[in-house]
Design goal:
mainly alpha; about 80 residues
Length: about 80
Amino acid sequence: MVVLVPRQLRMSGMTGNVPYYGGRFSPAQAYAASHPPPPPPPPPPVSAPEASADPLATLAALDHLLESGLVTAEEYDNLRARITS
Protein backbone atom coordinates (compact mmCIF):
# COMPACT_ATOMS: atom_id res chain seq x y z
CA MET A 1 0.00 0.00 0.00
CA VAL A 2 1.32 3.46 -0.92
CA VAL A 3 0.37 6.48 1.16
CA LEU A 4 0.37 9.72 -0.81
CA VAL A 5 1.33 12.76 1.24
CA PRO A 6 0.98 16.26 -0.23
CA ARG A 7 4.28 18.02 -0.86
CA GLN A 8 3.35 20.84 1.54
CA LEU A 9 3.15 18.42 4.46
CA ARG A 10 6.50 16.78 3.65
CA MET A 11 8.44 20.05 3.75
CA SER A 12 9.47 21.54 7.04
CA GLY A 13 9.54 25.30 7.50
CA MET A 14 12.19 27.57 8.98
CA THR A 15 10.80 26.99 12.47
CA GLY A 16 11.80 23.31 12.68
CA ASN A 17 9.14 20.62 12.66
CA VAL A 18 6.26 23.00 11.94
CA PRO A 19 4.72 22.02 8.60
CA TYR A 20 5.08 24.35 5.65
CA TYR A 21 1.77 25.95 4.68
CA GLY A 22 2.44 26.89 1.06
CA GLY A 23 3.90 30.36 1.67
CA ARG A 24 1.50 31.30 4.45
CA PHE A 25 2.42 31.74 8.09
CA SER A 26 2.25 28.65 10.24
CA PRO A 27 0.35 29.06 13.52
CA ALA A 28 3.65 29.35 15.41
CA GLN A 29 4.92 32.06 13.04
CA ALA A 30 1.63 33.95 13.24
CA TYR A 31 1.75 33.87 17.03
CA ALA A 32 5.36 35.06 17.04
CA ALA A 33 4.54 37.90 14.62
CA SER A 34 1.60 39.08 16.73
CA HIS A 35 3.50 38.82 20.03
CA PRO A 36 6.90 40.49 19.50
CA PRO A 37 9.42 40.27 22.33
CA PRO A 38 9.65 43.30 24.61
CA PRO A 39 12.37 45.82 23.74
CA PRO A 40 15.56 45.57 25.80
CA PRO A 41 15.87 47.97 28.72
CA PRO A 42 17.79 51.18 28.01
CA PRO A 43 21.41 51.20 29.13
CA PRO A 44 22.19 53.05 32.34
CA PRO A 45 23.34 56.64 31.88
CA VAL A 46 27.07 57.05 31.66
CA SER A 47 28.48 59.88 33.70
CA ALA A 48 31.76 61.56 32.92
CA PRO A 49 34.59 60.38 35.11
CA GLU A 50 35.29 62.82 37.87
CA ALA A 51 38.69 64.42 38.05
CA SER A 52 40.82 63.32 40.96
CA ALA A 53 40.98 65.84 43.76
CA ASP A 54 44.56 64.75 44.44
CA PRO A 55 46.90 66.27 41.80
CA LEU A 56 49.78 64.09 43.05
CA ALA A 57 47.86 60.91 42.21
CA THR A 58 47.03 62.33 38.78
CA LEU A 59 50.69 63.19 38.15
CA ALA A 60 51.74 59.70 39.27
CA ALA A 61 49.27 58.18 36.80
CA LEU A 62 50.61 60.49 34.09
CA ASP A 63 54.19 59.44 34.89
CA HIS A 64 53.13 55.81 34.56
CA LEU A 65 51.64 56.54 31.12
CA LEU A 66 54.92 58.11 30.03
CA GLU A 67 56.95 55.16 31.34
CA SER A 68 54.60 52.72 29.59
CA GLY A 69 55.06 54.54 26.30
CA LEU A 70 51.36 55.36 25.92
CA VAL A 71 52.03 59.10 25.68
CA THR A 72 54.92 60.91 24.06
CA ALA A 73 57.11 63.41 25.87
CA GLU A 74 55.33 66.28 24.13
CA GLU A 75 51.90 64.98 25.17
CA TYR A 76 53.22 64.42 28.69
CA ASP A 77 54.38 68.04 28.90
CA ASN A 78 51.02 69.34 27.63
CA LEU A 79 49.03 67.19 30.08
CA ARG A 80 51.34 68.03 33.00
CA ALA A 81 50.87 71.76 32.27
CA ARG A 82 47.08 71.31 32.28
CA ILE A 83 47.17 69.46 35.61
CA THR A 84 49.50 71.87 37.42
CA SER A 85 47.72 75.02 36.26
